[in-house]
Each structure stands twice: as C-alpha cells, then as structure tokens.
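Handout for the seminar on molecular recognition.
Each group receives one record of this type.
Step one: identify the two inputs.
Step two: read the structure output and locate the region that could contact adenosine monophosphate.
Step three: write two sentences on what you found, then compare them with the reference statements printed after the record.
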Amino acid sequence: MQIVFIGPPGSGKGTQAERIVQKYGIAHLSTGDMLRAARDAKTAVGVEAERYMAAGELVPDDIIVAIIAERLEQPDCRNGYLLDGIPRTIGQAEALGRMLQEKGTSLDCVLELKVPEDELFRRLAGRGRADDQPEVIRQRLLAYYEQTEPLLDYYRKQGLLKRIDGVGTIDEIFQRAEAVLDAYAH
Ligand code: AMP
C-alpha cells in the first residue's frame, strides 16, 4: 500500500497516520519528523531547514526531494508506506511521481483529511510546539492554502483523491480512513 496523506496543520493528521501505519503494517514517512530530527542532530540539512521551519515557511523542494528519495530506498518501505507532510507543492508531487515511475510503481491513493479553518487555529493554538506561536501558525496555514491545496486538484484529476471528514473523535475519523484504505490492503 503506497499512500499520500494530506491535511492542514492541526488536522490531526499525525495521530491518524500513527494508527493507519500500525493497522496496515506500512512505514510512516513524515518529512516534518525527519526535518526536526535533522535539526536536533545539527546536520547540514537540519541547520539549513531550521531557518524555514522557524518561520513557518516551506523548506525548498530540492532538500525535501533528496531526503525522501533516500528514505524510500530503506528496506522498511518495501511493504508500502504512508507519506505524511509530503508532497507539499506541485513541484514535490511531480518529483515524487518521477521517482515512483523510475521504480516501476505508483501511488494507490491520496487521502485528504478535511477540517474547517477556524477549528484548525483553535487546535494549533492549544498545542504548544515551538512553531505553534500565533504568527507562525498563521504562516503555516497560509503556506498550506497557497502551496498545498492546489495539490488536491492535481491528484483529483489523476483519479487518486479520497476525502474524509476530519471532525469527530479519533476513533470516528480512523473508521472513515479504514473505510477508504481497506480497499488497498492485501
Ligand atoms: P509538519 O510537521 O509536517 O507540519 O512540518 C513542519 C515544518 O517542516 C513545516 O512548517 C515546513 O517548514 C517543514 N516541512 C515539512 N515537510 C515539508 C515539505 N514536504 N516541504 C517543505 N517543507 C516541509
């Protein structure tokens, strides 16, 4: 199973991603987690990425594409994976498509978690991560609506987009995800 999981900051995507990868036995590839680990380890990539992350802006595509290309080669990706936080731009989606095509494979589906904007701001303001300051939250939501939302159309045209309602309890939302994803499990 090879899926992309898209949802705005604060949509509960991380929580649902954990449950999905556990149920289907696939790798969880979160570029946010990878970048935070690189930042904390003070690698060259991490130091460069931190300038963008601290401002709520997207890290340049070439850095992200290099990170994910390397990650997809790891043995735990052979059973499939859930991409969480990538692609964030059309450029990243195109690079990902080319990477998969070179391997003779493709995505099964793109799952979108839908949550209204006022609800997102409320949730993010209560979370307390370093990039959850009000100004940075606003910037991250802006980056999502300007750069990531166009991806939904891109994948809809390819017939890959499945949308689920992200308002409800964790269990309710997970059941909606399962109703879509069970079709791709084997
Ligand atoms: P996240 O945990 O997915 O919300 O990511 C936190 C921050 O990491 C984002 O605000 C971006 O600065 C950066 N980031 C994570 N994934 C990407 C990506 N695919 N492209 C660009 N920047 C990213």
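Reference statements: The chain has a mean pLDDT of 93. The chain has eight helices and five strands.
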